[in-house]
Amino acid sequence: MTQRIQKIGVIGDGSWGTTLAVYLAKKGYVVKLWGPFPEYIRQMRQNHYNPKFLPGVRFPEKLTLVEKLDVVLQESDFIVFAIPSQYASKILRKISKTGVKLSKRIFVSVTKGIEKTSLRRISEIVRAEFGNIPFAVLSGPTIAAEVAKGIPTTAVVASRNMRIARKVQEVFNSDSFRIYTNTDVVGVELGGSIKNIIAIACGVCDGLGLGTNAKAAIVTRGLAEMARLGTALGGKAKTFSGLTGLGDLVTTCFSPQSRNRYVGEQLGSGKSIGKIINSMEMVAEGVETAKGVYKLSKKHRVPMPITAEVYQIICRNKKPADAVTDLMSRKAKAE
Questions:
Q1: What is the C-alpha to C-alpha distance for residues 129 and 95, in angstroms, rounded to an integer?
Q2: Nearest 10 degrees: Cα torsion 246, 250, 252, 254
Q3: pLDDT number for residue 1
Q4: Predicted pLDDT of residue 2
Q5: Which residues have a catalytic role annotated?
Q6: What's the CA gap between 261 and 267, in Å, rounded?
Q7: Ranges of the chain with pLDDT below 50
């Protein structure tokens, strides 16, 4: 990858996709942003901001809103994929049908989640659809609103090809957004996915009015669960103590802006998962990811008690207080 990146396409107009589109345009790149609903794209083009997902942030001149997916692909040499995990396959198939070849373009996934039906990570879905294209994953403790405000943030770009990782690092890195490189795509993707489940558990603690001791236990033992499954699936243990593991976990579990923590808090206060989801504009990835990760843990025989209890609360209507009791009354063991 020696070409100079000039034109960037962002697929997905949610909070994170829009934030990155604005950020990259402010850095001087020519950016095109696409979303799945043409009417909303036209509304944003007229208003010059994203009222649902990034209110109050004006679009810079170098950011263009585009209704046609093939136009974004054809006129970009660097693609940022920011579609929620449960819709990823559908949009990737749509990309494939445009006929635009991705072998000469760098494709960067910023999606955090696992497909609940196939149990595949985004990199696996991309590889199945497009083969061995230039691919990387960007992940880390990145609350979109903070990045949009220029608050210091760090993240990791992972690729099996270090030249691609360094090229993506070059595109995203700045004084306010520090990017590190890694080759552990599996670990980075799983850390960014599983932490959302643990954040729901932390939110349940908040909703039940439990204290800091309980949340500290959930974070610590949740990290152990992340690392257990991650290493079982080929990730590196040290990745989970880094930005895309512990760093992202802490941010998501404690930030008032965390959607997944909010879902857990509402569950802990007695609301049903259906009512909570229906009341939200944004996607809380942890809800569907919990279903996929629970199945993965069973398939690979990896003990994940916190994940299992979150799954029971979401899918089996288990009372959050009962889930806490069952976690605390498990057979005593060594750490």
A1: 9
A2: 170
A3: 45
A4: 47
A5: 195
A6: 10
A7: 1-2
